[in-house]
Amino acid sequence: MDDQNNQLMFRFKEGDISAFEELLKKHEKSILNLIYRFLGNSNDAEDLTQEVFLRVYRAKDTWQPKAKFSTWLYRITANLCFNWRRKKSPVSLEDLSILPSTTNGSSENIEIKKEIQKALLSLPKNQRLALIFCHYEDKSYQEISELLGCSVSSVKSLIFRARQNLKARIVTNKLHE
Amino acid sequence: MKCRKVRKNLSAYLDNQLQITDYRLQIEEHLRSCLSCQEEYNLLQRIDGLLEKIEPIEPTETFLPRLWQKIHYFGKERWFEKLGTFFPFPLSAKVAFVFLLGVFIGTTGFFIRKEKIVQEFRNDYSFSVGLRSFADIPTNSFEEIVQSIKE
Q: How many domains does chain B have?
């Protein structure tokens, strides 16, 4: 998988734009959703995803296959997520209404979704990102430690605390019942 | 294993990320006998289930065109970035530099133009004075008397 990514990046380095398009096609959805879960807003998520791929494009001449391509890509994403500052106001409840509605989306279901998203957004950035990598991206604690630049035990602690914080909020709002 | 230790490791157990395999067996054994820890485990599982309610999204139709637009724009602005490597100062310093450069060029241009205009006036003046020197000497004037004595 990563050999294939590296080959595509080498082709792109040599000037083959179609290789970049292929990389984009392969990773855009996962990066978009990772950022969307982190920010809670689809418009901002698209903007930041574009920034991630713009960085990949810009790194064409300087890129070296030191790490796995996916690790490098997720690290760019993590850095951008950490440094991201909203231009307008902080995420409000209205922003969360952008959440996609499901086919069986009753109003109660939508309310639960909003509350879950709010609970996730209330987590500190590092806890939120560690939990998203673990839960949605199926990354191991070892991989997350490489992405966040910390030890495996720190990752374990981050995810433990993230779940405890979520639990406190969810139990308070009785969402688990 | 005591409840406190089990609870501390439940999150990693849920993610199948316990480093020590023995812990896993000990936790499983503890969960079978401790109702309170079992409830905590079930709650964590339910929270994970709730997280699934945040469904994935699809990129909008404008996502790719906007990205290519940014990439295209990046190519154009690249020369400015290269310039930035030779002039590694904050934006305010760059703006001040451009402003001062503009003032310098404007002032210098004004003085060069002014000098040119003055020079043109001088040329015109000396030409007109030169023409006057060829004019006829009026009759019975002092100049005519002097001229006749000389001859």
A: 2
Contacts of B47 in chain A (CB under 8 A): 163, 166-167, 170, 176
Q: Which residues of A touch B43 (CB under 8 A)?
A: 167, 171, 176
Side-chain half-sphere CA neighbours of B15 within 13 A: 27
Write down how long chain A is.
177
B39 at interface of A, judged by CB pairs closer than 8 A: no
pLDDT in tens, chain A (177 residues): 677 888 999 899 888 899 999 999 999 999 999 999 999 989 999 999 999 999 999 988 888 888 788 899 999 999 999 888 765 555 554 455 444 444 455 676 778 888 888 999 999 999 999 999 999 999 999 999 999 999 999 999 999 999 999 999 888 776 655
Decide if B81 is inside a domain: no
Contact B57 A32 (CB under 8 A): yes
Task: Using CA atoms of B23, B28, B31, B33 in order, give the dihedral in degrees to the nearest 10.
Answer: -110
Is ipTM > 0.95 here? no
Q: Would you say the C-alpha torsion B75, B80, B83, B87 has a positive or negative sign?
A: negative
CB pairs under 8 A between A and B: 88
Q: What is the distance in angstroms between the Cα of B20 and the nearest Cα belonging to chain A?
A: 12
Fold held by A2-83: Rna Polymerase Sigma Factor; Chain: A (1.10.1740)
